[in-house]
Structure formats: structure tokens, C-alpha cells
Amino acid sequence: MGKISCNRRVVITGLSMISPLGNDLNASWEGMINGKSGIGLITAFDAAEYTTKIAGEVKGFNPENFMDKKEVKKMDRFIHYAVACSKMAFEESQFKIKDSNAHKVGVWIGAGIGGLMTIEKYHTLLLENGPKKISPFFIPMLLINLAPGQVSIMTGAKGPNASTVSACSTGTNSIGDAYRIIARGDADVMIAGGAESTITPLCISGFNAMKALSTRNDEPEKASRPFDKNRDGFVVSEGSGIVILEELSSAINRGAKIYAEVAGYGFSSDAYHLSTPDPDAQGAFYCMKNAIEDAGINPEDIDYINAHGTSTYYNDLNETKAIKHLFKEHSKKIMVSSIKSMIGHALGAAGGIEAVATAMTLYTGIIPPTINFEEADEECDLDYVPNIMRKADVRYAISNSFGFGGTNATLVLKKWEGK
User: Fold this and answer.
1) DSSP letter string over 282-344?
2) What is the pLDDT of residues 370-382, one digit of tens each?
3) In the 8-state DSSP scheme, what is residue 349?
4) Interatomic CA distance for residues 46 and 241, integer angstroms
């Protein structure tokens, strides 16, 4: 893939996340580095008859803290998360949109599934009460591109505005695509990431039918256990992760706080199966390879990988295999961890949340652990930072996301060293 023709540098000047561990950056990050679990029994609906009764729910979130009550009613919950998270990240960046720069500020936020909650609600309403009971806001409520659309309306950002939809790679692709937009000069600032809220009867039923979810219902906090020998599936969660990307000279000229630099982006396809990863791990291998080449560095420069790490047998095995194939002997020196062990799998939001966590690792020098790592799998034999966070000087880090359909995305983030 190599370097793109325009080499404008891009940094992260704002970030936020909403997760099962908290409704802002500080609460979520503190929970992660302290190894807390946000997984519990489902409260969004009565899950008594379901094979899986657990999820990573966002708790105590009130969208009216971020928008008028009348606006709340026009949006699905995943859009509430996108708007709230974007507003917090944008406030953190301290960037000001003016008439003179609005056309150079864009929004690129995706979701893997989108407004499933709205679809289920209004389908039931239609069947029970007929078509006249359907809200005129039904369609805008569920459309994935209304996440960036609403953020654009509320912030005044008039630059590039769209959504990437690539299953569980969505958040990472969205940030990577936004990075490229700035690098080639189509914008100076991008609000980018992912949002998702699909803890619904249909979602849980669908993943259960695929036998993809953990059924460790009696121990919810121990259910998500990436790379552990006794893992039995992933745990669905929800939330949002948003970063403010900014062209380097713009950030420096206004004296912005810089959390990290986006150094590279790669993506690929397994071209193998609709849900099972390529057993040779070629897609994940080339995805990371492409990102490292785009960053203009060597594999040996990578210190840490924020893994996709879903707690499913094939994903964890294949990600490990790809890391060992690409990094060879250096793979033994790389620290690898999965925050999904604590917050579950937020689908289209996962890559956004994980990019925020990776940037925080570079900024703070703290690596969140992989909790519930109790019994090593002989096929997963890397340093997964088990159970307890670790302090380390990380210069280059990778954030991986792999999704249904064989879609893969990788970001390379670099510690900001003032030059």
C-alpha cells in the first residue's frame, strides 16, 4: 500500500468515550486501567428465556445532558451516544468552529448495525397499532449516517460528512478514513469514530443463533476472557469512542494539547468466509503490515498492540497467529491487551473506543490489562498483559479491528514527542 501522495501529518487533539465502565473519558479509562468489568445481566429487556442473559450495558446515561428533550426523541440511542461523545471530545480539543473554517471541519462516524432498537420498536408498533402510528422521524432515527449528520448540525461542521460501515472494523475504518481526508487536504479537522447500541432481543437472538456469544450467565464479570483457554464467545456491549483529528500545524499554531499522532492506517479483506476469519490469518497479517508501511516504520518499532481480542476461539487464535507471522521474534517483546475483557464487544463502536484507549496509553504510559486471563491457551502464547495494568514507555502502538465479511482495519498511533 505504501505512503499516500499527500503527507500532511495528523494528530489527536481531543477524545472521549462512553462505555459500560463510564459515561465519559475519565470514568471509562480509570475503570480500564484498574481492571474493572462493566459486564452484567441484561436490564434493557427481559432476557430470562434467552441463551445469553449478559451484556455490557451503558449505565445511567442521560441524553438530555447533551441535547434538548425534543431532539432526543428524533434519534436512536446509538446517535445519542455519538452526539454526546462528539461534544465531549470536541470540548476537550478546545477547537472553535467559525464561519471562516467550518468548511474545513468534517465528521466521519460509523456504526456496524445502527438503529436496530428503533426498527424493533416501530415494527412492533406497526403490527399492534397500524401504519398511522409510525413517527415521521422513524427513518432519520435509524440511519447510520444520521450519527455524523446530527453531530454536524449541532457543531456547525460543514466539511466532509459520512459514515463507514464495516461491521466490527467500523470505528477503526472511520478514524483511518478521516485521517486520510486530512492527510490529502480535504479537511483540517475531523470528528471521527464509532457508536453502537444494539442490546435488543433481535440482536441477542441473532448472535445466539450463530453461537457467537458467551453463555457464562452465572459469572457475567468473568464472561469476556480474550486469549484465555476457557473463553466461550464474546459479550455484546454498547457505547461510543470519538477522536478529534487535526492537521499538525493547525494544532501547534493554536497551542492544542496533543494526545498522539496518527502515523499509519491499513485495511484488507480475508476473502474467506462471512463470519469466520481466514485460518492462515493473511487478512490480519496484511492489514497490520499495510498500516506499518503507511507509517514508514519497521515492525520492530511497535511496542504495544490494542488487540481486537474478542474472546472467541478463532479470532483470538488468528490474531495471535498474524502477530507472530508479521513480527516474528519481536512478537515476544510486544505487549498485547484486549479491553474487550472489561467492556465487551461494542461492535461498530469498538474500534473507536479502542483507538481512544490506545491514544491514552501513549499519552499516559499505562497499558490496560486483559482481565480474566486465568489459564493460558498453548496456541495463544504472547504477552497479553494479564489481569493487572502495566506502566511502560510506548512509542508506537497498533489498534486492530476485524469484522464479519473478513474486513480488517489497523491504526498505527505514535507517542507525541513535540516534533
Assistant:
1) HHHHHHHHHHHHHHT--GGG--EEE----S-HHHHHHHHHHHHHHHGGGGGT-EEE-THHHH-
2) 999 999 999 999 9
3) G
4) 28
pLDDT tens column, 89-148? 999 999 999 999 999 999 999 999 999 999 999 999 999 999 999 999 999 999 999 999
Got the DSSP string for 22-52? BSSHHHHHHHHHTT----EE--SS--TTSS-
Backbone angles phi, psi at 242, to 5 degrees: -130, 135
| Crossing angle between the packed helical segments 350-364 and 170-183, to the nearest 10 degrees | 70
- The pLDDT assigned to 5 comes to 44
Q: How far is CA 326 from the centre of its chain?
A: 23
Residue with cell 516504520: 297
Q: What are phi and psi of 216, to 5 degrees?
A: -80, 65
Cell numbers that stand for 365 in this block: 504510559
308 is catalytic: yes
Compute mean pLDDT per 10 residues along the chain, 419 residues long, and list them. Answer: 66 98 98 98 97 98 97 97 98 97 98 97 97 96 98 98 98 98 98 98 98 98 98 98 98 98 97 91 97 98 98 97 98 98 98 98 98 96 98 98 96 94
6 is catalytic: no
Sequential DSSP letters for 273-298? -SSSPPTT-HHHHHHHHHHHHHHT--
CA 163 to chain centre: 14
Retrieve residue 169's grid coordinates: 472494523
Among 80, 85, 287, 345, the one annotated catalytic: 345
- CA-based nearest residue to 171, from 144, 199, 211: 144
What does 72-119 look like in DSSP terms, one character per residue? HTTS-HHHHHHHHHHHHHHHHHT----TTTGGGEEEEEE-SS-SHHHH
| Catalytic (active site) residue 103 | no
C-alpha cell at 37: 468489568
d(CA 414, CA 102): 28
Catalytic residue among 80, 203, 287, 308: 308
Rounded to whole angstroms, the Cα distance separating 415 from 2 reads 21
Q: Which pTM does this prediction carry?
A: 0.97
85, 168, 203, 380: which one is catalytic?
168
- Those residues whose C-beta lies under 8 Å from the C-beta of residue 402, and which sit 6 or more positions away, are 168, 169, 277, 283, 284, 287, 308, 315, 319, 408, 409
Closest by CA position to 344, among listed 222, 230, 243, 229: 222
